[in-house]
Write a structure and sequence with these properties.
mainly alpha, Four Helix Bundle (Hemerythrin (Met), subunit A), 6 helices, globular, binds fe (ii) ion
């Protein structure tokens, strides 16, 4: 059987890789805003755009249909953490704008936001992999999971946005080559 949860866990491998790049980037003395912008773009379009869209538009609503709350419990907490992640991305974006205006004090704020995002997402992914997805597998019928898997594949192929997940994964790997 095609497990929809495994599709999401595969995204997690590369989102985690991106968070490790962010930690390395934040630790370096030299600081290149171009790479920070690449990270921001990958978070917006891959981690948040493509991956969180799979969760927020497809998996979580299915779990809510099965009785989970949108506001608390495991799904509610995951949604809240996605929102917290967006706040860090906003701080990174604001920081890069200020840095480009010549204010170097923005660097420490960007570094803090990058580290904050990395830790948030690492813990978030741990909870999804270890708890939420295992619960989801027990709740979904085989046809439900197959439908979800096919929907995820459609998203991966870029049928909704024109950009495939393979393309994003390539870009994460390229950044990792620079920073690892
Ligand atoms: Fe998530
Ligand atoms: Fe996730």
């Amino acid at each position: 059987m095609n497990r929809a949860t495994h599709n999401l866990e595969n995204d997690h491998v590369f989102i985690l890789k991106l968070t490790e790049v962010m930690e390395k980037m934040a630790e370096r003395t030299e600081f290149d805003p171009v790479y920070v912008e690449e990270v921001i773009d990958l978070i917006r379009n891959f981690a948040d755009g493509l991956h969180h869209a799979k969760e927020e538009n497809l998996l979580f609503p299915l779990l809510v249909d099965k009785g989970f709350s949108n506001e608390n419990g495991p799904v509610g907490v995951m949604l809240m953490e996605h929102v917290q992640g967006r706040q860090y991305v906003k701080e990174m974006t604001d920081g890069v704008r200020i840095l480009k205006q010549g204010d170097f004090s923005a660097i420490s704020k960007i570094r803090e936001a990058m580290m904050g995002y990395a830790v948030l997402l690492q813990n978030h992914i741990g909870k999804e992999n270890n708890v939420l997805f295992r619960m989801a597998e027990n709740l979904m019928s085989a046809p439900e999971e197959e439908r979800l898997f096919q929907d995820f594949r459609r998203i991966d192929n870029g049928n909704d946005t024109g950009v495939s997940s393979a393309n994003y994964i390539d870009r994460v790997n390229k950044l990792a080559e620079i920073y690892f």
